[in-house]
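Sequence only, no structure available. Ideas?
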Amino acid sequence: MKLYYSPGACSLSPHIVMREAGIPVSLVKVDIRARKMEDGGDYTAISKKGYVPTLELDDGQRLTEGPAIVQYLADKAPQSGLAPTNGTVERYRVQEWLNFITSELHKNYSWLFNPTAPDSVKATVKERLAQRYAYISGELAGKDYLMGKNFSVADAYLFTVMNWSARVGVEINDQRLKDYHARVGARPKVQEAMKAEGLLK
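Reply:
I predicted one. Tokens follow.
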């Protein structure tokens, strides 16, 4: 399988999952602004959406959208425990988290990365994110990870999104969230992924 990624973008989430699952990682770097790959190829020929991630399967099919990709990867390596078994309430809890992160966090950060967004909009977005992070902090009480003791695909996604905070002026001062972020960031496979993307030395 081949993962089309941009360093530090939301594609870091499936990259982490691949390494955590023990799935061989073949990476293709994409300049998402220019929509070009490292070899100069047109990325929109790979994904008409023009953004990452895209996962190319061994049979040539392609999957897009991070929450779908990470579940596919977890199901390819069920022994990894990265996602509960399909059909269980726990699996729907993971999907609940993935949907929350993508709609309530990820999409809000998009405004903060937009240089044309008015300051008033950015201020409102930051207030909204503060409320969402307060909710997450409450849900993490007494837990190591979102699902309890076990690291899941949802944690890979939340960690990735939290990484953007310093770049766009979102302050995360809550100690529980800071401890959670540090805990995920210390995982060997997470560090491997970040080093491979040039995010860590």
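The chain has a mean pLDDT of 97.
Hope that gets you unstuck.
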